[in-house]
Amino acid sequence: MAFVVTESCIACKYTDCVSVCPMECFFEGPNFMVINPDECIDCSICVGQCPVGAIVEASEIAPDQAHFVQLNRDLSHDPRWKRITQAKPPLPEHEVWAAAKNKLHLLKQQIET
Ligand code: SF4
Ligand code: SF4
């Protein structure tokens, strides 16, 4: 079972998690991050790095977040999503969105042109 990025990350994307991952298995979209479950070695180092507690073990995920297991798998294999290994500044309105719930509709799968 791999670790999974859940809803709290949407529109925040602090990226603190990526710099500690020994497998470099985070992938970045416009306003969300995911973990490639085929590369994650379940070390859990990233969990404590996330300021909003967005990373959980797949087998312990809350029922209302269960769809993020498949979403992490799908988006980490989406060619539009790129591997990210270095932290960078969070999104401009991260403080507003950090505490917000029900953000799935805000998830952008590709950069708008
Ligand atoms: S640290 Fe948390 S909020 Fe930031 S990108 Fe990683 S999972 Fe998302
Ligand atoms: S659990 Fe370990 S290998 Fe998996 S994403 Fe987090 S830091 Fe990377």
UniProtKB/TrEMBL annotation:
Alphabetical keyword list: 3Fe-4S, 4Fe-4S, Electron transport, Iron, Iron-sulfur, Metal-binding, Repeat, Transport
Stretches assigned to the 4Fe-4S ferredoxin-type domain: 1-30, 31-60
Highest rank taxon of the organism: Bacteria
InterPro entries named among the record's database cross-references: 4Fe4S_Fe-S-bd, 4Fe4S_Fe_S_CS, 7Fe_ferredoxin, Fd_C, FdxA, RnfB_subfamily
Pfam family, one: Fer4
Presence of keyword Electron transport: yes
Cofactor(s) the protein needs: [4Fe-4S] cluster; [3Fe-4S] cluster
GO MF terms held by the record: 3 iron, 4 sulfur cluster binding; 4 iron, 4 sulfur cluster binding; electron transfer activity; metal ion binding
Signal peptide extent: none
Keyword Electron transport: yes
Database matches in NCBIfam families: FdxA_Protbact (NF045490)
PANTHER family: FERREDOXIN, OXIDOREDUCTASE
Protein task: Ferredoxins are iron-sulfur proteins that transfer electrons in a wide variety of metabolic reactions.
Protein name, UniProt field: Ferredoxin
Source species of the chain: Pusillimonas minor
